[in-house]
């Protein structure tokens, strides 16, 4: 590894420090388990939940990101962009997964997929096997990183030791012990592991602090600051390329997009991530903090990745593996204590991943591979055992040992051929094969079991051919010609250029072909498949989880069921897996000879699912219930019929909800029609009154003029003036009614264009000035001299302004004040008419703009008019793309504190306003055109 690393530490010192640190983790886990047993679980904290998600940051992050940055610059970032983007979708995707997992008592991602697709044992086993094979290289990555960093720190240490005596094996053994003690000591895998989660949260803090400490030391301790470090890097052409985008993007063959997609899928589908994010979650509301805290963690732990990579290249050149810069640089700088802290940080990163991954994988192997086989092949032998809990625990513990042994074997035999990141990406691509079936199962009711099995199988086979087998070839297990020439010399089958697709990054190439095979098969088979009753029931339960009532209520069984399992049968089945006490609690109050019925069958299935998974639970029920009560085939048929009833029941629930909504809508519509009918009667009464009054005056005065030809000329002129005034009043009334009718029918003529608002408002003031003089009301006008043009119809704008000014004159008492003001406001012109009248109560401020509605409707005295003026003004303003409303006059009392109307004499008025868009800004939703319609 070259010289210049500085003086290493004794291997005994490092080993003792590592064992001491692991002992602390054991102590923390034990303490957390004891607190949980006392009812004060530490994992009921959203911060602990968010920190546990940082198990995503393994030695890949701690060591491998620096190695990737030393080659690609900022090209290491996509690994963390994917999880960050996924957290943005947490309210949509993750929250739904959490809700489903709690309702179904899910134990792993394999159990999740198996349960979604009709409790399929075949799918669960396939996912468990694929995850185990795919994640084994990832476990090897952790062991390799710890072992190599141990060698660097100790100057060789145990690195030359024979197999099973090296540092990698010692770490694997310690992690196996931890996983067995704190992750595999209870039967119900759906329950939480507070000790394990607390230790993971602590490890997340340790590796963050360690990496930040190394980064600060490298930047300011070795280089005197970021500026000096980057200047030194920029002066070296071979290193300066890392500061630009060419190293990260050039020739990457879509690696950025590929890695981002894979990392997002891995965040969702890696067994360890599913374990801490879903199985260990105690409250889905914890996602609210994780949405921002986990991305913040990713940002902090990656702050110094590029500076450390640049410093390592400047210091060591090519003499030290870039993956080891985090330990090598402190050693070179004489900070042995910091190098030891960095090693412990890397150990934390590895330990967290190994423990959680092995627990998750062991649960999957036990529940979805081993138990289904045992239940189907040796049901009588299992039936003779009154307590299967020891068998379950033994299987899980053996699985943990086997998983870590395989990981260690891969590390010894093939791990040396790859950098850390390359090993990790192989695993990411493997678990990404679960994503189509998982996401599709959440939102597509038509997705079927055969489609999911076919998709996962096809995608996994392509992954194995394009990524896994080439890793064997590069490790010497297969001929090198397998990569260069393809099997049997068939160039079209070259794993890195399948069917002639050349020039792509191997990872992008593998993702393309595996996704094409996976999604294509999944969709095609689902479209042409016909799901069974159990699949349909589970599809509804998963897709519509937020619409369901939360409890699974099953109607009584049909009367033609003659052979039912008894409560005693179910108690015996559950007791064999969960213990007699738990079984008796589940069926308390029921006689053993009482028929179980579909409700208790469903309860038994859910209890067993928490211990052995959904698919195995169904097999256990079918194979363990006494034959005298019900045969296995009959029991499965009963469960399927129950599931069918559940599906129909949920569909009926949804239809009932929709019917209730429709009923509410009809009720509201009926109330609105009743109100409109009343308003129509009021309108006809008002219009009749308004027409009769001027007509009566006109007729009476006309008769006087007709019957008395000798009437004094002054009196005659006065009568004629009254007739003309009343005729104008009739004309206004008729015009208002006609305008409203035209607006409602869309027949009103519009001449919309750019107009001068000052000119239009001035004309409105001139038209109403006499009205203010007549009533002794002071009118003030505040219109700036150079207002920007607005988009509108000048005649209609004048009509609106006249209406607001006339209303102000009508409701303002003699001696009062009215003010017209125009001001530009945020791309619009705002026109306000403020009066000192009685004001408008808040509860009436929307009603006054309705047809036939007047502010004085419920007052002792009703103001003159039809109540159409403001309704017409509202429709004109909205057609022109503006808004209209009413507020309290500035500085006035709240007009709505009491009843509306003239009895609020102490109120100081209302402020009616409307807005118009400035010329050149199209009004939202306006259909107006710059022409005469």
Describe this structure in words.
The chain is mainly alpha-helical. About 65% of the residues lie in helices and about 5% in strands. A five-stranded mixed beta sheet has the order 2-4-5-7-6. Helix 1 crosses helix 9 (about 195-220), helix 2 (about 45-55) crosses helix 15 (about 285-300) and helix 29 (about 595-610) packs across helix 30 (about 615-625). Mean pLDDT is about 75; it is low at about 550-565, about 625-640, about 855-860, about 890-905 and about 925-933.
Average pLDDT metric:
77
- Strand numbers in spatial order across the main sheet: 2-4-5-7-6
Share of helix, binned: 55-70%
Judged by helices, strands and strand pairing, the structural class is mainly alpha
Q: What is the number of strand segments? A: 7
Poorly predicted spans: 549-563, 626-639, 856-862, 892-906, 923-933
Distance between the termini: 84 Å
User: Largest sheet, if any?
Assistant: 5 strands, mixed
Beta content comes to under 5%
Shape: elongated
State Rg.
40 Å
- Helical region count? 35
């Amino acid at each position: 590894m070259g010289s210049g690393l500085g003086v290493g530490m004794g291997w005994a010192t490092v080993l003792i420090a590592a064992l001491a640190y692991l002992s602390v983790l054991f102590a923390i886990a034990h303490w957390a388990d004891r607190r949980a047993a006392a009812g004060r679980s530490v994992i009921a904290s959203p911060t602990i939940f968010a920190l546990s998600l940082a198990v995503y940051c393994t030695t890949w992050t701690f060591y491998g990101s620096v190695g990737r940055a030393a080659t690609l610059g900022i090209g290491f970032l996509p690994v963390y962009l994917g999880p960050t983007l996924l957290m943005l979708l947490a309210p949509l995707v993750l929250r739904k997964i959490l809700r489903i997992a709690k309702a179904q008592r899910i134990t792993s991602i394999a159990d999740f997929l198996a349960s979604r697709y009709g409790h399929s044992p075949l799918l669960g086993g396939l996912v468990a096997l694929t995850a185990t094979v795919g994640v084994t290289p990832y476990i090897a990555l952790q062991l390799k990183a710890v072992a190599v960093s141990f060698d660097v720190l100790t100057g060789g240490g145990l690195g030359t030791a024979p197999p099973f005596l090296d540092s990698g094996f010692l770490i694997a053994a310690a992690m196996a012990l931890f996983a067995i003690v704190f992750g595999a000591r209870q039967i119900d895998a759906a329950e939480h592991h507070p000790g394990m989660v607390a230790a993971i949260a602590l490890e997340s803090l340790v590796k963050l602090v360690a990496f930040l400490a190394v980064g600060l030391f490298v930047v300011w301790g070795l280089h005197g600051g970021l500026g000096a470090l980057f200047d030194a890097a920029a002066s070296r052409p071979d290193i300066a390329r890392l500061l630009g985008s060419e190293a990260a993007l050039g020739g990457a063959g879509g690696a950025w997009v590929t890695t981002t997609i894979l990392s997002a899928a891995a965040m969702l589908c890696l067994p360890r991530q599913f374990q801490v994010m879903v199985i260990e979650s105690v409250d889905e509301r914890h996602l609210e903090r994780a949405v921002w805290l986990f991305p913040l963690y990713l940002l902090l732990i990656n702050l110094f990745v590029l500076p450390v990579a640049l410093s390592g290249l400047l210091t060591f050149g090519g003499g030290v593996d870039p993956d080891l810069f985090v330990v090598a640089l402190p050693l070179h700088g004489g900070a042995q204590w910091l190098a030891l802290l960095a090693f412990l940080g890397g150990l934390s990163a590895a330990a967290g991943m190994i423990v959680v991954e092995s627990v998750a994988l062991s649960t999957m192997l036990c529940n979805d591979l081993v138990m289904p086989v045992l239940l189907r092949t040796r049901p009588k032998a299992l039936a003779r055992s009154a307590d299967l809990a020891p068998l379950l625990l033994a299987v899980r513990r053996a699985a943990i040992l086997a998983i870590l042994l395989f990981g260690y074997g891969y590390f010894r035999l093939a791990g040396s051929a790859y950098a850390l990141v390359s090993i990790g990406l192989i695993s990411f691509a493997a678990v990404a094969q679960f994503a189509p079936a998982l996401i599709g199962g959440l939102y597509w009711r038509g997705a079927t079991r055969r489609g999911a099995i076919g998709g996962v199988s096809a995608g996994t086979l392509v992954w194995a051919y394009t990524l896994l087998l080439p890793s064997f070839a590069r490790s010497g297990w297969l001929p090198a010609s397998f990569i260069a020439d393809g099997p049997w010399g068939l160039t079209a089958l070259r794993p890195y250029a399948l069917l002639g697709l050349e020039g792509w990054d191997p990872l992008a190439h593998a993702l393309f072909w595996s996704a094409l095979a996976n999604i294509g098969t999944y969709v095609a088979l689902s479209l042409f498949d016909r799901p069974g009753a159990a699949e349909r029931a589970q599809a509804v339960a998963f897709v519509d989880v937020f619409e369901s009532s939360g409890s699974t209520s099953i109607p009584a069984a049909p009367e033609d069921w003659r052979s039912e399992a008894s409560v005693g049968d179910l108690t015996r089945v559950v007791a064999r897996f969960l213990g007699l006490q738990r079984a008796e609690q589940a069926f308390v109050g029921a006689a053993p000879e009482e028929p179980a019925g579909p409700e208790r069958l469903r309860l038994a299935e859910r209890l067993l699912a928490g211990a052995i998974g959904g698919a195995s639970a169904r097999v256990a029920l079918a194979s363990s219930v006494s034959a005298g009560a019900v045969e296995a085939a009959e029991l499965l048929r009963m469960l399927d019929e129950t599931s069918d009833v559940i599906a129909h029941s949920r569909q009926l629930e949804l239809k009932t909800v929709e019917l209730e909504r429709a009923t509410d809508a009809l009720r509201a519509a009926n109330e609105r029609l009743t109100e409109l009918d009343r308003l129509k009667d009021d309108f006809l009464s008002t219009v009749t009154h308004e027409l009769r009054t001027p007509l009566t005056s006109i007729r009476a005065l006309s008769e006087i003029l007709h019957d008395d030809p000798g009437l004094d000329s002054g009196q005659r002129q006065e009568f004629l003036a009254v007739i003309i005034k009343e005729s104008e009043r009739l004309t206004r009334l008729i015009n208002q009614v006609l305008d409203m009718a035209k607006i409602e029918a869309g027949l009103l003529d519009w001449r919309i264009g750019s107009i001068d608002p000052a000119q239009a408002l001035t004309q409105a003031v001139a038209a109403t000035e006499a009205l203010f003089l007549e009533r002794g009301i002071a009118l003030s006008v505040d219109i700036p001299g150079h207002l920007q043009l607005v988009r509108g119809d000048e005649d209609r704008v004048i009509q609106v302004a006249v209406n607001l000014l006339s209303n102000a004159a009508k409701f303002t008492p003699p001696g009062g004040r009215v003010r017209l003001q125009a001001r530009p406001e945020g791309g619009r012109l705002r026109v306000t008419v403020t009066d000192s009248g009685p004001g408008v109560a808040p509860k009436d401020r929307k009603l006054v703009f309705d047809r036939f509605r007047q502010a004085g409707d419920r007052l002792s005295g009703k103001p003159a008019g039809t109540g159409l003026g403001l309704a017409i003004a509202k429709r004109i303003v909205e057609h022109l793309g503006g808004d209209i409303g009413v507020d309290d006059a500035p500085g006035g009392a709240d007009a709505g504190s009491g009843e509306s109307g003239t009895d609020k004499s102490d109120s100081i008025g209302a402020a009616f306003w409307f807005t118009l868009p400035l010329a050149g800004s199209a009004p939202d939703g306006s259909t107006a055109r710059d022409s005469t319609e």
